[in-house]
From TrEMBL:
This is HIT domain-containing protein. SUPFAM superfamilies: HIT-like. Residues 42-156 form the HIT domain. A motif (Histidine triad motif) lies at residues 141-145. Coiled coil: none annotated. InterPro entries: Histidine_triad_HIT, HIT-like, HIT-like_sf. The lineage of its organism: Eukaryota, Fungi, Dikarya, Ascomycota, Pezizomycotina. Pfam families: HIT (PF01230).
Amino acid sequence: MPGLEPDNISPLVLKETSLPLGNYSESCAFCTIAHAFPPSPNLSSPTPSPNGDPVIFPQAHIIVSTDGVLAFLDIQPLTRGHVLVCPRSHVERVTDMTPTESCRVGAWLPIIARAVMKTAGVMDFNVVQNNGIHAAQVVPHVHYHIIPRPSNEEREQLIHKQGARWLISKYGDGVRTDLDDEEGAVVAGEIRGNIFSELQEMERDGNGRIERKLLSSL
């Protein structure tokens, strides 16, 4: 969303309680991303912190970067809009998360999921979370996959519109390809724009204002 200024961002982004950023592992790919992308109120274009931070390769396409939560595109997506959501602090398993870390991630999951589905143009999706190498966890840092899952009709439309590389089979058998950086930048921008719309909608809803105030204190 070009021209989006921090003053216009919902307090849900701006007013997360400032707590220590927690554990950091130099060998963890997600901690490297967290280090390079500090908490930012600007959903339109989160920028890496300046000199001295690790170089990110492949390029990270950030969706949300707050005190406690980081969301970014999967570098080998199963579908267009495949996003990872994780706590900023380094924790390896769900069982290692504190109540505060769990609440923060849980508060953002439905908001990001709605934005991803709008971007992907589908209704159904998976939220997947793996713990340990025998459960298919590749990066030892808690993360949730949000994966759009098109219907047969949506699937045919995606193949026609986006190419056969987005061909999706049953869960677990999807085709994974490397994310193109140019496409990633476009998709990430669309998702951030839809998140901003979600936050605005929450603000317009009377009940949403109460909920948003509660979430902002997590």
